[in-house]
Design brief:
The protein has helices at about 15-25, 70-85, 135-150, 165-180, 185-195, 195-210, 250-265, 275-290, 300-330, 335-350; strands at about 35-40, 45-55, 55-60, 105, 110-120, 220, 230-235, 235-240, 250. The chain has about 350 residues and is an alpha+beta fold. The chain has two domains: about 15-120, 2-Layer Sandwich (Phosphorylase Kinase, domain 1), CATH 3.30.200.20; about 135-350, Alpha-Beta Complex (Aminoglycoside 3'-phosphotransferase, Chain: A, domain 2), CATH 3.90.1200. The longest helix is centred in the last third of the chain and has 28 residues, at about 300-330. The mean pLDDT is about 95. The protein binds adenosine-5'-diphosphate and magnesium ion. Magnesium ion binds next to loops.
Length: about 350
């Protein structure tokens, strides 16, 4: 048949994303006038955009594929609890026109979840594996953790409790024992050369936690991923805290230990992989903030303090498990994951010296 050729120009990536964002925004506002979208490239798991509308800036998150709805409901109940407590560093969730905090969409067979947040101003100054902040910034991060713990301790989630870290490390042991080298890589060479060392560390940490009746320590919904890359700064102040992907019921002491491991690490320093000066600064600022919030009773107990070193070791094992999971299930950069594992091994060695 002759006639005019239909010209159907395929949409480019930006146009497809714009359509996706527009569709989701229509669930939140009557006729939202989308001015600009900007893809955020800092996230590891979720796809995020800064969204500019006439009425202001927002932050749209498309959750990682495969996330369960229960998980989002849990994370949102946590955020809403903190918003109600006026913890202003946690960006608020917006409600859809149907009074929901998230949008579900089917794209083909896949179910996708989205949530819109207020846009948190501030500077993304650090990433988790380069915590080279100033002492003042570190103290402010510690105070932010204290605030989080102060505002969260009453929160009772409707969410099933998983195993605590003392039991989780046994799962890591089973996983590591089953691993087989798959390809020639720096990561795997390092891992298999030090497999016994890691297994020994797991056994030791397990025994130490067992002896100390670990599960009698106070539990809360921990942040679980409290590093400087999950915060924004203006001057030296923390202005925003996000990323509740690893939030779960755990002991408060473990959250503090994980934060110490992240934020007081000296990467590339084989002999001294933890900065003890920073560690003291962090703990002092954390305790001081709780005192200032008139919550002295919620400062770390003697028992929690004694367990912090063992919990830093446990947190280090958590990160080894995370790196192995990523390495074996995702396409990741060998050199980068080698660097992570090297640091974890330095920490094991340091504790055993
Ligand atoms: N409400 C928000 N406003 C502005 N920026 C945000 C907001 N939430 C997250 N971000 C930015 O997005 C990045 C990724 O978000 P995050 O929750 O850490 O995702 P991921 O789990 O993928 O790491 C953060 O480092 C931060 O720069
Ligand atoms: Mg993050």
């Amino acid at each position: 048949m002759r006639g005019k050729k239909l010209s159907i120009k395929p949409l480019n990536v930006e146009e497809i994303e714009r359509e996706e964002v527009q569709t989701v925004l229509n669930e939140y506002f009557q006729d939202p006038l989308l001015e600009e979208i900007e893809r955020n490239t800092r996230g590891f798991l979720n796809v995020c955009w800064k969204v500019k509308l006439k009425k202001g800036n927002f932050f749209l998150r498309r959750y990682r594929v495969g996330i369960k709805k229960d998980r989002i409901v849990f994370e949102h109940s946590l955020i809403q609890h903190l918003n109600k407590k006026n913890f202003t560093k946690i960006p608020k969730l917006l409600q859809t026109l149907n009074n929901k905090t998230f949008v579900e969409r089917f794209v083909g067979q896949r179910k996708l979840f989205y949530a819109l947040f207020e846009y948190a101003e501030g500077e993304d100054r650090y990433v988790w594996d380069r915590p080279n902040c100033s002492d003042v910034e570190l103290k402010n991060a510690a105070k932010t953790l204290a605030e989080y713990h102060a505002f969260i301790y009453e929160f009772k989630p409707k969410y099933k409790e998983g195993p605590l870290i003392d039991k989780l490390i046994l799962q890591y042991r089973r996983k590591i024992m089953k691993l087989k080298p798959r390809r020639r890589s720096m990561f795997e060479t390092l891992l298999f050369n030090h497999k016994d060392k890691i297994l020994k560390e797991i056994n030791l940490v397990y025994e130490l936690l067992k002896k100390s009746s670990y599960n009698a320590l106070p539990r809360i919904v921990i942040h679980g991923d409290f590093h400087l890359g999950n915060m924004k700064f203006i001057n030296d102040e923390v202005t925003a805290l996000f990323d509740f992907d690893w939030a779960r019921i755990e002991t408060r002491a473990y959250d503090v230990a994980m934060a110490l491991l992240y934020n007081c690490s000296k990467w590339e320093e084989r002999r001294n992989p933890i900065d003890l000066h920073k560690l003291t600064l962090f703990l002092d600022a954390y305790e001081e903030k709780l005192k200032n919030l008139k919550m002295s009773w919620w400062r770390l107990s003697g028992k929690e303090c004694t367990l912090i070193p063992i919990l830093i070791r446990a947190a280090n094992l958590y990160l080894i498990d995370w790196a192995c999971d990523d390495f074996y299930n995702k396409k990741v950069n060998d050199k980068e994951y080698y660097r992570y594992l090297k640091h974890n091994l330095n920490i094991i060695e340091w504790f055993n010296e």
